[in-house]
Amino acid sequence: MVARGQLVLLCSTTFLYALCFMAQAPLLPYMIDKLGAKESNTYGLLMSTFSGLQLVGSLLSGPLVDAYGGKLLLIISFASSAACYTMTATASSIWMLFVSRLATLMQHAVLAARTIVTAQSPADERAALLGYIGASYGCGFALGPAAGGLLSSISLQATAWAAAAGSVLALGIVALLLPADSPSKQQQRKEHSTSSSGSSNGAAVPAPQQQRVFSIASLAAVVQHPGVPSLLLVQACSGLAQSVFQSTFSLLIKKQYGLSSKANGMMLSYVGCCIVFAQAVVIKPVSKRVGETAAVRGGCGLLVLSFLALGSCRELWQLLACLLPLAVAGVTVATLNVARLTKAVPTSQAGTVMALDMSLGSGLRTVAPLLGTWMMQRYGYPAVAGSCAALVLAALLQQLAIGRQEVDASSGQQEKKEQ
Prior knowledge:
The protein is mostly helical. It has one domain (4-179, 215-418): Growth Hormone, Chain: A (Up-down Bundle), CATH 1.20.1250. It is 82% helix and 0% strand. It has 17 helices and no strands. Helix 1 (4-24) packs antiparallel against helix 8 (156-177), helix 4 packs antiparallel against helix 6 (109-119) and helix 11 (228-255) packs parallel to helix 15. The chain is globular and about 50 Å long. The chain crosses the membrane at residues 7-32, 44-65, 72-88, 129-154, 160-180, 263-282, 294-312, 319-339, 379-397. Keywords: Membrane, Transmembrane, Transmembrane helix.
């Protein structure tokens, strides 16, 4: 079981990670406008560039964190964050703003924190502990836009400088206080002990092979586990819908409702509060009462209804009312699917399967901003919301098609292996 002090450190640094990221992210449309570029197209391209880099970085980070542990990836992530936000603060042209996104290639603190928790927690407690990491991220997500909006009254650059300082603080906390870990090596020692015991009983058990970092074969091996392809397909459908919504939300707030950068930040803070509510109050009791599979199906159904309602919003209070179920359902589906993915593979491959999930999300976010801004400009926001509802409906139908036998069977096999 993960130690309480270690969990507190992971939650604290995850909070700082989200706080710094969300303090500056909602202000990028305003910074693009200030630098004299065409806002919608440039913003979509900037977000797609960021997501493309995250896609590549996720595939690199998964085997890395399995082989060398989460602490190393946390250090790299916060160093990358500090570099990105420093370059954002000093950007004086659009191309410099694009260059600042290069540092986000290895910005994967959430993956590192999730891997540490997964490697040191029993399967039946994993969803709840991952929920704590998610709640910490949600708190930063909630407070970051508000803090960034307030700092933007000084200047847009002041927000980026504050985010850089917060990243340096988190880097120091991880480097000095967080214990070293190496999940895959711990698992290999456990497997080696089992093989030694088998050999003493006269059975020849092959010794575990050393994992190759950045191996395509290791990524392919993870996908071959029963249940993983189906779960990733569900993540793809629901993830694309949420990515399209998220990539167009700041533009919706600015254009349709005419809110300032400060009010935009407050609106995103409200969304963050909804996410924290879901992580802290909804996920654990609901998943224990009805099961993770049923909870994901219910979340998908609620997402479909929320997106349909979102497309018909005309007043700000209507938008606020729709955002609560949308945020709660979205984070419930995403968190529980991650927990189910980690149960479908051996613990030593947990980082890799979560990296595949995050790289899938990054790949979707590469196309989502361009797709979302194009639909918004050509057909209006109701078309964006309707498309999101259709995508989540496809995820729900996929859930109903695969049933729960495949994943539950693989989860049971994994629990037996870990006992």
